[in-house]
Design a protein that fits this description.
hydrolase activity, AB_hydrolase_fold, eight-stranded mixed β-sheet, Dienelactn_hydro, alpha/beta, 21% strand, 9 helices, Rossmann fold
Length: 249
């Protein structure tokens, strides 16, 4: 497996401060947070944000707002149909991780991702779709990084990606990895590099020292290394999307 299944580190973290400025809409029956770039009523490029297990909450909404501020239509769907995790519930021991994962596998998630992609292509006429997959969402980025689906991919500390899913990608992929990560370990990073080199796709893998799994979306930002890592991981995603769009537009 290119990255291990979710573990306790995937279900913990810190809520970030800020006020989301986007809006909630429905795409079919999928509740979706959307942030629009200022001054662009018909954006031609979008970022689909595939979330970690906490789904739509302040941290992921603020990231969507940041993508919009950089000129992208940012779309953050509720992958879990209301069955998202809550940090406080996990800390209180109210979450049965295996049971939750059994309800939220590819049979449930794939159709929701497919519906949002179809909406972007057909209803909004978006020409290029980038995708940022965080932790849990990294698996579904890999599954949909195909011609006619997701054009450009970025993932931070991915979980649950199989060797076969990674080997089957058809478009460029960038990865932000944490030095301390029991899900995307050093051995699995190196194995992923080997798989990516065999795909023939343009790829990038940046390693951030001093941070742990989840640093790009839910780390404790009072710690300078975490704050630096989160900000630089986001800049990595933006630089990757901008470059790939300029080359392959």
């Amino acid at each position: 497996m290119a990255s291990n299944p979710p573990s306790n580190c995937c279900f913990t973290g810190f809520k970030h401060e800020g006020t989301a400025t986007g809006e909630m809409i429905s795409i079919g029956n999928i509740s979706t947070y959307i942030a629009r770039p200022k001054g662009d009523d018909t954006p031609q490029k979008a970022v689909l944000i595939l979330s970690d297990v906490f789904g739509i909450f302040t941290n992921s909404q603020l990231i969507a707002d940041d993508f919009a501020a950089n000129g992208y239509l940012a779309v953050l769907p509720d992958l879990f149909a209301g069955d998202k995790m809550d940090i406080s519930d996990f800390e209180a021991g109210r979450i049965n991780i295996p049971e939750w994962l059994s309800r939220n596998g590819p049979d449930a998630i794939d159709p929701r991702v497919e519906s949002v992609l179809r909406y972007l292509r057909e209803s909004l006429s978006v020409k290029k779709i980038a995708c940022a997959g965080y932790c849990f969402g990294g698996k579904y980025l890999a599954r949909f990084l195909k011609q006619g689906k997701i054009d450009i991919g970025y993932t931070a500390h991915p979980s649950f990606i199989t060797d076969e899913e990674l080997a089957a990608i058809e478009n460029p992929l960038s990865i932000s990895a944490a030095e301390t990560d029991q899900i995307f370990t050093r051995e699995l990073r190196h194995k992923s590099e080997e798989i990516l080199s065999e795909t023939g796709q343009h790829y990038q893998l940046n390693l951030f020292s001093g941070v742990e799994h989840g640093f790009a979306i839910r780390s404790d930002l009072t710690k300078p290394k975490n704050k630096f890592g989160k900000e630089q991981a986001f800049l990595q995603a933006i630089a990757w999307f901008n470059f790939e769009l300029s080359v392959y537009a």
